[in-house]
Amino acid sequence: MTRDLTQPEILTELEPVAETALNRHMSMVKEWHPHDYVPWDDGRNFAMLGGTDWAPEQSRLSEVAKAALITNLLTEDNLPSYHREISENFSRDGAWGTWVGRWTAEEARHSAVLRDYLVVTRGVDPVALENARMIHMTNGFAPPVDRVNSAGAAGFLYSVAYVSFQELATRISHRNTAAVCDDPVADRMLQRVALDENLHMIFYRGICGAALDLVPDQAVEAIDLIVRNFRMPGTGMPDFRRNGVLMAKHGIYDLRQHLEEVLQPVMRQWNLFGRDGFGPRGEQARERLAAYLADLETVQIPRFEEHRDRALARERARVGLPR
């Protein structure tokens, strides 16, 4: 017989798990400093200080690399919104509070190093970048689902389910962005950021797995809703659709990667489709999730890939490359 718990009860029950995960994280995380990853010798003043302002020909980045770096940076910029969501759904006490603070501090380095790199190397228009940052941070981040179940625990469970997938998705996006930058400095920087994201994913994935053991029906309902309504945290930023299409077309982050490199590995780690202990609600949620994943694999991904291949063929034809 499964049981529902309130959010405070879940936090209390899972705090020993959070403490163990926090200690493991602190034993694995490597100290690094954003300034070490920026080619400062490439920098020069802008017009206000007697130099020259940005011009498109100054950038050495492809359009795909620009789109990916801007998207990744603006996503990292929205950290205040993510901190608010996590802190509201976790606790400020004990291991929970320590983790929220540590995670926020580590995440803050990502926007610092990405922005410094782009401004110093003149990779993108810094005025347009700042205007986009102002818009995106003013709008903030809205969670993909905003429902509270009868026990009042959905906020925490939705949060840990979402970040279990999102941190891994972000890691993959940073890693694949490195491959299109054609710059060893950017490669080192993005690989370093991706390592942070992977450790964050491991923390949240472990907490969500423990929640599945503790409150299986509530947890799988949260996972089901998150997966079926998943949106990357950059959704809504200026030019997100255009940049997202470019990134998907050129293999930085697309639907197949989302399924095969994010959703499936995390759910395998939880043994979501092999475990017992669900009640009727949990079984229904698992069945909905299985049906959605099957549709993603057999309908949505083939449809996307067909459209993508046609678009790439048109691009190659325009520039005279073989198909």
Instruction: List the secondary-structure elements in sequence, H or E.
Output: HHHHHHHHHHH
Work out the number of β strands.
Answer: 0
Query: SS-based structural class?
Result: mainly alpha
The proportion of residues in beta strands is: under 5%
- Tell me the helix content: 55-70%
Shape: globular
The largest pleated sheet is described as: none
Give me the Rg, rounded. 21 Å
* Unreliable spans: 147-152
Terminal CA distance reads 58 Å
Mean pLDDT: 92
* Total DSSP helices: 11
Protein name: Acyl-ACP desaturase
Subunit structure: Homodimer.
InterPro entries: Fatty_acid_desaturase-2, Ferritin-like_SF, RNR-like
Keywords: Fatty acid biosynthesis, Fatty acid metabolism, Iron, Lipid biosynthesis, Lipid metabolism, Metal-binding, Oxidoreductase
Would you kindly provide a written description of the structure presented here, covering whatever features stand out?
70% of the residues lie in helices and 0% in strands. It is mostly helical and 323 residues long. It is globular, with a radius of gyration of 21 Å. Mean pLDDT is 92; it is low at 147-152.
Topology:
Layout: H1 7-28, H2 63-77, H3 79-89, H4 94-120, H5 126-139, H6 154-181, H7 184-214, H8 216-228, H9 240-249, H10 255-270, H11 280-318
Pfam families: FA_desaturase_2
Protein name: Acyl-ACP desaturase
Cofactor: Fe(2+)
